[in-house]
């Protein structure tokens, strides 16, 4: 039997930050900007991380700046990634979700 997600979805919608249409449609936003937006909406919010300050920080924090150049395209994937130098050997960025 599937769990009823109605209360969870209602709570998520209650705290949803509405991004202005120009944010979503602005051609100046890079693919990384869109990936960041998608990470927040599809990986972070479903885990009921709904605090507006946390969500705003996730939007500001450039995850791609903390990983080696070869991993920038994966910065928003739901996986652990190595940290950029001078990281301690073996440390990684945890998956976002």
Estimate the global geometry from the Cα principal axes.
globular
Number of strands: 2
Beta content comes to under 5%
Given the structure, what is the number of helices? 4
Describe the strand arrangement of the main beta sheet, using strand numbers: 1-2
Indicate the structural class.
mainly alpha
**Multimer state:** single chain
Mean pLDDT: 76
> What is the helical fraction, as a range of percent?
25-40%
Intertermini distance: 24 Å
| Sequence stretches where pLDDT stays below 50 over 5 or more residues | none
Topology pattern, helix = H, strand = E:
HHHHEE
Largest sheet: 2 strands, antiparallel
Computed over alpha carbons, the radius of gyration is: 15 Å
């Amino acid at each position: 039997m599937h769990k009823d997600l109605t209360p969870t979805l209602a709570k998520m919608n209650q705290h949803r930050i509405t991004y202005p249409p120009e944010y979503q449609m602005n051609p100046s936003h890079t693919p990384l900007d869109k990936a960041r937006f998608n990470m927040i909406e599809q990986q972070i919010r479903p885990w009921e991380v709904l605090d507006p300050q946390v969500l705003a920080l996730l939007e500001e924090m450039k995850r791609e700046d903390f990983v080696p150049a070869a991993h920038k395209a994966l910065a928003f994937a739901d996986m652990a990634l190595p940290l950029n130098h001078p990281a301690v050997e073996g440390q990684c960025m945890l998956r976002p979700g």
